[in-house]
Amino acid sequence: MHIEHDIKLGFKDVMIRPKRSTLKSRSQVTLERNFTFLNSKSTWAGIPIMAANMDTVGTFEMALVLSQQKLFTAIHKHYSTQQWHTFFNTAPKDIVNYIAISTGTGKEDSKKLKTVFENHPELKFICIDVANGYSEHFVEFLQQTREQYPDKVIIAGNVVTGEMVEQLLLSGADIVKVGIGPGSVCTTRVKTGVGYPQLSAIIECADAAHGLGGQIISDGGCATPGDVAKAFGAGADFVMLGGMFAGHTESGGELISRNGEQFKQFYGMSSSTAMDKYVGGVAEYRASEGKTVEVPYKGDVKATLQDILGGLRSTCTYVGAERLKELTKRTTFIRVAEQENQVYN
Ligand code: 5GP
Predict the structure, then answer these.
(1) Is 186's C-beta closer than 6 angstroms to any atom of ligand 1?
(2) How far is the CA of 182 from the centre of ligand 1 (A)?
(3) Cα 268 to middle of ligand 1, angstroms
(4) CB under 8 Å to 49, separation ≥6 — which residues?
């Protein structure tokens, strides 16, 4: 047994220190970024915020709205090949720049991936997503996928430590997804005791990835636009959101009306709700590692989007970053023992 004594931090443990700035207005801030990916050599331009590949968030409807502002959606893996076909019949051509097709590492997963790519070779991004990115099987699957699709952009995760980020980049990933346990409907830390505070995970994993010329996505744990800013400040190239995009018109999940109020169902992809829906229940050898909740219905995602992007622009003006690209360089975190004033909460 071994203990690491360095304290690891989450979003709630820090704030960003303001810095002298020459920016007059937040309208001067550019949130768009350009990337060239390590293995596929593809390029991308857009606002690097992503809807998570959960069936309540990573929907075709979400992608159509987010892509209008050049944000990205990792489409969940439960759409059928027929549903993909219908989507492509009506979606704008440039949608392929703003969506990834998600896959697990099973035989059926790779068969479906192949069929969708045969039907829609213009798709550019693949998101290989497993709860535990430390497994050898996952790395082998990633290597095979890279061989099979040499020029597609491959996202792979999730991991939380630098050495595994390096291993995934060297095994064919372009972008590594970082986060174990911080998610709003995740119970991994409770069920297994495993996890890593997200801010430290970002700082350490970004360092490892950038050293090799790769990128990372901070996945999970953002509850406010301020958290999104902290994730970028810590070094994330992309930030993936589940809960913050849940509960909207474009989100999946049942709309529930009760006593004149409306809610939408939101659940983890390892929750018993998801497992009942897709694999006929929770297998005997495992426990569910996700919650099912009802979130107040928030209307169209457009308003939420403005809130997030407006917040992020404001962060950039507070530290004098004219572009999102400069935010990490201009960020000094201070450790704190308080966050927002709770008097009226
Ligand atoms: P959020 O933005 O809601 O805090 O986090 C979203 C992320 O939580 C997802 O992108 C995914 O990585 C993670 N997640 C989604 N469902 C589950 C689940 O059932 N269990 C666990 N452990 N993580 C989940």
Answers:
(1) yes
(2) 7
(3) 6
(4) 66, 71, 72, 228, 238, 239, 240, 241, 308
Name the helix (H) or strand (E) containing 84: helix 81-90
**DSSP H stretches of helix in 213-337:** 225-234, 272-279, 301-319, 327-330
Specify which residues 221 forms β-bridges with: none
Burial of 82 (0-12, 13-18, 19+ CB in 10 A): exposed
The reply to whether ligand 1 has any atom less than 6 angstroms from the CB of 275 is no
List, by residue number, the catalytic residues: 186
- 22-32 per-position pLDDT tens digit: 988 888 899 99
Radius of gyration of the chain (CA): 19
> DSSP letters of 28-44?
G-B--EEEE-TTT--EE
- pLDDT per position as a tens digit, 58-80: 999 999 999 999 999 999 999 99
Local structure of residue 12 (DSSP, 8 states):
G
Tell me which residue has its CA closest to atom 17 in ligand 1: 268
Residue type at 187?
A: T
C-alpha 284 – ligand 1 centre gap (Å): 22
Is this model's pTM higher than 0.95 or not? yes
